[in-house]
Design brief:
The structure holds two protein chains of two kinds.
Chain A: H1 24-37, E1 49-52, E2 60-63, E3 65-67, E4 99-101, E5 104-120, E6 125-132, E7 140-145, E8 162-172, E9 175-184, H2 192-208
Chain B: E1 4-17, H1 26-31, H2 37-46, E2 48-50, E3 55-59, E4 63-68, E5 71-76, H3 82-94, E6 99-113, H4 116-126, H5 130-135, E7 148-152, E8 168-176, E9 183-199, H6 200-232
Antiparallel strand pairs in B: 1-5, 1-6, 2-3, 3-4, 4-5, 6-9, 7-8, 8-9
Helix pairs in contact in B: 3-6, 4-6
The chains are: A alpha+beta, B alpha+beta.
Chain lengths: 216, 235
């Protein structure tokens, strides 16, 4: 098993060596060059649109989707990997690739795992136990308005349900936004075979814990 | 104050095995209550399915999924989240009999270094330039790092060759970020070789048991590497 097979799934275009920051003129030339030589991904509806952010004097961004391929190896599914090799042909990338919006960078800065303790529909709140997963805060309980629960998650809200409350920072160019996301944990619906499997396991356990028979 | 800041920290999970891409459609995920209706709707808009070729790819707000040939890849789009773990545990719990051979629990960080001098320091710590400048004089040439991959396997290095690799190996690839100058990208591949007889149930168990720990370790590794490199090399 080759290890690189489980790498994934971001492709990266090394624009400039680490430890060599170019002059602004050089960056502008490079941006122009990328625009003129940018290859296309076969069988993908996406095309890359490298551009220079006019508001960012010192920033060259490749706006638009990045190409996600099977590994970080430069030869696969990438645009030009260096100025010395401006044309890397992607014709061999015969599979559709996932694309993501490479212009937005996100990082989760705080996370709590919560459990619904009580649901008070009349008051429109749920009492929850929150456990910090990103710090050393002690567990605490609080009430959360049901208004912040997504309509899609509405039928998951019940005592015992587990949810994640995450605070995420998104950065698009120089604009930073903070978002809080509350999402309920989704597990597969019980199928008949799963129920049968649990029932069989229950019978087996019951046999093992059968009360001993005492003989006089 | 830290000399760097995370700009991005995303996660991906890769599973290698004998997969059937035709199964893992947005509708299948919705039918098993693994994604919401709105996730399913946005996934359908981006769906690229070439079933005869064994390919399916789609994305919704928070993750992308790609099953191609014998490889399953799911990636977060808005930062690493345990929802990805739950998704994979659930999918492979349902596909319990699927033969699999390896898992990758991967994390990708973009770190913005606060000063240009830190950026230089980081590259110099990764790849000292002395031997290069003996051939390419510093007054005439600039030498820089485009990419570097390190492989870490458990156990001390021995004189044996070829090196015997364990079943759990890490690769850390460091490159300049394509997003912006002064940002470095670190991709951490936690590779777990499952051998020849593993199934989807093993994937569900291993991801459930290890993902959270690997996420924390990877985040701490990035911090350690950047802070050590930037703070540990005098220029």
């Amino acid at each position: 098993m080759s290890m690189s097979e489980t790498q994934g799934g971001w492709s990266m275009v090394p624009p400039l060596p680490i430890d060599l920051l170019p002059s602004r003129d050089a960056r502008m030339r490079r941006a122009t060059r990328l625009t003129s030589t940018a290859p296309r991904v076969v069988q993908s509806h996406a095309t890359e649109r490298p551009e220079v952010d006019d508001n960012e004097g010192d920033l060259v961004q490749l706006v638009g989707p990045e190409f996600l391929t099977s590994s970080l190896e430069p030869a696969v599914g990438q645009m030009a990997t260096s100025l010395a090799h401006p044309q890397v042909h992607l014709a061999q990338v015969a599979d559709p690739t996932i694309t993501i919006d490479g212009s937005v960078a996100s990082v989760t800065i705080a996370r709590w795992e919560g459990v619904v303790l009580d649901l008070r529909q009349g008051e429109g709140v749920m009492s929850v136990l929150l456990r910090s997963k990103s710090g050393s805060e002690p567990d605490h309980t609080c009430d959360i308005s049901l208004k912040v629960v997504s309509e899609d998650d509405g039928d998951l809200v019940e005592p015992g349900a587990v949810f994640y409350l995450e605070q995420t920072r998104h950065q698009r160019r120089r604009t930073i936004s903070l978002a809080q996301t509350l999402s309920f944990r989704r597990l597969p619906a019980w199928s008949k075979s799963m129920l049968d499997s649990v029932a069989a396991a229950g019978v087996e356990i019951q046999k093992r814990f059968k009360a001993p028979t005492f003989v006089k | 104050m830290s000399k760097f800041d995370f700009e991005r920290f995303d996660a991906s999970i890769v599973v290698v095995g004998s997969l059937n891409p035709a199964i893992t459609t947005p509708d299948w995920l919705l039918n098993h209550q693994l994604i919401s209706q709105s996730d399913r709707d946005s996934a359908m808009q981006s769906l690229q399915a070439l079933v005869p070729q064994g390919v399916i790819a789609f994305e919704c707000d928070w993750f992308s999924l790609n099953v191609v040939h014998q490889k399953f890849t799911a990636i977060t789009k808005q930062g690493s989240t345990p929802r990805l773990r739950d998704l994979i545990v659930s999918i492979f719990g349902l596909l319990g009999e699927t033969p699999v051979s390896a898992i990758g629990l991967n994390f990708h960080a973009d770190c913005k270094l606060s000063e240009a001098s830190d950026y230089y320091r980081f590259g110099d710590a990764l790849a000292p330039k002395e031997i290069w400048h003996r051939w390419f004089p510093e007054s005439e040439f600039a030498v820089g790092v485009l990419a570097q991959t390190m492989e870490i396997s458990p156990g001390p290095r021995t004189s044996a060759f070829p090196v015997e690799k364990g079943k759990s190996i890490q690769q850390v690839t460091i490159q300049p970020s394509p997003r912006a100058v002064g940002v470095v990208s670190l991709a951490i591949n936690n590779h777990i070789d499952l051998g020849a007889v593993a199934t989807g149930r093993d994937v569900a168990r291993i991801v459930s048991e290890q993902w959270e720990r690997k996420e924390e370790e990877s985040r701490n590794l990035v911090k350690h590497l950047v802070e050590s490199a930037v703070g540990g090399v005098d220029k």
